[in-house]
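Hi there,

I know you've been waiting on this one. I reran it after we fixed the sequence typo, so this is the corrected version. Both the input and the resulting structure follow.
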Amino acid sequence: MKNKSVLKRVLAAIGRFKALLLVSLPLSVISVVLTLYIPVLAGRAIDGIVSAGKVDFGAVKGALAGILVCAAGGGVLQWLMNVINNRIAYSTVRDIRSRAFSNLQRLPVAYPDGHPYGDIVSRVTADAEQFADGLILGFSQLFTGVVTILVTLVFMLMLSPVIALAVVILTPLSLFTARFIAKSSYNMFKKQSETRGEQTAFINEMIQNQKTVQAFSQEERTAGGFDEINERLRVYSLKAIFFSSLTNPVTRFINNIIYAVVGLIGGISAIAGMITVGGFVSFLAYSNQYTKPFNEISGVVTELQNALACAARIFELIDEPPETSDDGAAELEKPEGSVRFSGVSFSYDKSKKLIEDFEFFAAPGQKIAIVGPTGCGKTTLINLLMRFYDVDSGGIEVDGADIRSVTRKSLRRNFGMVLQDTWIKNGTVRENIAFARPDASEEEIVAAAKAARAHGFIKRLKNGYDTVLEDGGGLSEGERQLLCIARVMLLKPPMLILDEATSSIDTRTEIKVQDAFSRLMEGRTSFVVAHRLSTVRDADCILVMRGGRVEESGTHGELLAKNGFYTELYNSQFAQR
């Protein structure tokens, strides 16, 4: 994303707070005018002191009183302006961050599947903070600096147009230098931001999988990978700082030249009587005031380059195309539960075939088991059925309606899912069970927990159903899975999807949970993905998949009678002595 387009979008985002801007801008102008009027008053005080014994005390007192009033008024206005500018900056960043997170909720599952989680988190958090810091500097120093330059130029023209012209002629040297350095530093800041996101992703991945790293004694290799990213971040950071650090000393050098020129011309003018001594002193003050903002602006430009680089990463997330719109789609209401796959083809990587011309029909209330070796496409069928991914060709129908013609929300509302990978949100046990039905009564929540065989261990927790779970709350994997099962027990959807739903539960508890599932599945179309074939022997139909296609299908008895691939799988788990 180009720097100019990012800047336009940032300005558009800031423009939403026009009311605050209309207050801040006049405050900034008035504050600068009051501050810059002080040298004029100081010059008048100096001119009031003619020589020893010849002092115009009235003029001096009036000038000093004016200086006091201008300094106090300018300070108060500066404080008010900073308060308003901070509100504008943080409100702007809040809105942009909200837009990024909101779009993240609408992105297809393919986006988080294809991007490191840490990098996504870094865009919404670290990059947003860097952006906020840059905006605050931009408001507090950039605009004030520009106003200071313009107002100072007006005062200098009033005092001496000739000296002012000399200052204006030398000024572009400072601007061109700052522009050249800023352009070079932007690329480095962009790489720095990207590498920081990569580092966050790496740290996140290693923390989540620390047990695996230690189990395979890969600590040194992992540390080496981190060091490599860390070294690249160091290099980019140093280069960014190097380019940005050039700005201030170079512009300061040019500004000192301007100050010397003003002093020389002003001194000659004062001797020639073209300007008073007080006016000359005021002009020197203005010359310093005029060049000082260039130093500040050069530093701000550096920070703004960093902020724009971070903003570009946030806007990239905002610009990611969301899932196809549900506009005009119908609501799927109380389906009977018939599901048909018609000529479905799909692959994650379009260069590698996965599922081709898949055909299948599930009648309402049937229990369909999907079995097969790892990578054969079992979970992919579930992803397609839930529209986490859309088919490449063919179609999937529920009660005769193509699932692409109904809203995703209504489709997913009619399915209850229990996955092998459990997710427990930060909150109480009660909130976790009632995740899909926040309005559920206490009796319903307890009944669902009892049906899932989770009530016993919940009552043993410190605060029972009010126990707050943070990052799983110290629960075992099996207990976490029981809570996920309780969610579905509470929801009681017309269709079920169980993807290795009891893989982390001990055999004794699994038998009880399977009994609860059997009661829950009665009259409901159910899709059960399983590796343990003992859990699907009572299925109405077992789909045996291999290489993205259905190798065999039928009941448990029918498949064993065929003595085919299913029999091989079954015998490998229940080998007879």
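Quick highlight: The chain has a mean pLDDT of 81.

Best,
R. S.
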